Known about the structure:
Distance between the termini: 21 Å
Amino acid sequence: MIDEFLNTIKGELGEKLLSQLNVPSDKLEGLTSTAATTVKEGIAEKLQSGKINDILGLLGQGGASSAFAGSLTNNMIGNFVSKLGLSKEMSGSIATVAVPFIIGKLKDFADRKGKNNAEGLTDLLGDVVKGSLKDKLLGGLGKKLGF
């Protein structure tokens, strides 16, 4: 479900980058794909380590300024530099627009789906880790019970 969500917002993110930062249109596909992948990888890392509260923190008030959002921003800057060859300055400008935008859209998506709690996020984002999240959230109890 997260892939579907990220694919649906790429166009809107591209439009936002064009209008706010005048990013060259030939760079948009690479930028939006890299931004989406960076967020997905960051979420997967948090889910795999059982830190769903960090993800819930993104969806709360001030989530775009949370430590996890800062980590996503830094990772995105690094990916723009290493994968797309952009300058650190340009990458920083883009990431500071992209991360809050994606977080806002994720919050709206979770709210619309009624998935803005730990159980809902597990359902919404669980495909990122292919089932291991339930074991981590339940402290391994799910696996012991055969779930």
